[in-house]
Each structure stands twice: as structure tokens, then as C-alpha cells.
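W.,

You were right to be curious about this one. When I first looked at the sequence I had no strong expectations either way, so I just let the prediction run and decided to look at it fresh. Below is the sequence, 164 residues in total, followed by the output.
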Amino acid sequence: MTAPEVRHLHRVLASLDAHLDGGLDGQLAGLCADPAVAEGRAALTRLVDPDHAARLADELDPREAAWLAEELLRRWAVLAPPVLDPQAGLDRTTGPAGTRLTVRVVGLDPGWTVAWTGAQPDPDEPGTATWTGRSAGVTARVLGRGPAGRVVLAARWDPPGEAP
């Protein structure tokens, strides 16, 4: 399981990537048009790539991730108030009944719901489902309300050796 500090860093990076170039709200519009930031922009694009992010999570010390996230937020705040977008992920544990997945959500108001594809939801524990090996992977679609209104988030887990 990825450390909370590393997950927070991923959220900061993904939010910065979404808001850069004027993305979701035009907050930082025009910043990346300057050739002086082209190299840094390309590096950010690599960091938010899911394959690169997974490798980074394996290699990054949680203390380093916490420091880097706070430094990015500090520098972002110099330009505009940081806006961290809602995010969903899946935590996995394996047991005799199969692979148990729990959706992890940050940035949504309480009362969000989840719809599972490829796994059997646990009626006693909302946000939890079991994968028994009968599907190629699992997708959790989370519906809720965030700071900007209604939000739909998706988190996916593919078993080792399976292609999405």
C-alpha cells in the first residue's frame, strides 16, 4: 500500500497539472506559454503519468514526499491559491475469500456513493468490494459533491499480469 504522504504528493501533482495551462478554471492560464518553463512542464507531465507515478511511489520515502508536496503547494500559493482536486484510489488486501478492495476518497463531502464493476460490493461495508478472479480488473466509480459541485471519480485496479 502506498504511504499517505506519497498519495498526497500524487494529489498535489495531479491538481497542479490539471490547473496549469488554464486547465479547469483558468487559474494559471498562460504560465506555460513561457518557454522558460517548458522543461519543468514536461517533467510535471511525466510525474503524473500513472506508470511513472507507480514507480515513484515505490522509490520515494514518505518524508521526502511530504516535503515535496508542501514545497509545491508553497510555490503554487505564490501565484494563486492552491486548489486540490478530489481524488479516489483503491487499497487492496488479499485473503481466503479473494482480493478485497476499499475505495479511498479525498476532497469529497460525506455521503458519496460508489458503483463497482468487476467486483462484488460488500453490503455491510460501503466502499468495499471483493474481487474473486472472475473479471479482468475492477473499476470503482465514485459519485459525490466536492468544492466545485457534483463530481464523478474513477479508480481502477488490474490484477498483476493483466492488461487494462
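Here's what jumped out at me. Residues 56 and 125 are 31 Å apart (CA to CA). And, maybe more interesting for your project: The chain is about 35% helix and 30% strand.

Coffee later to discuss?

I.
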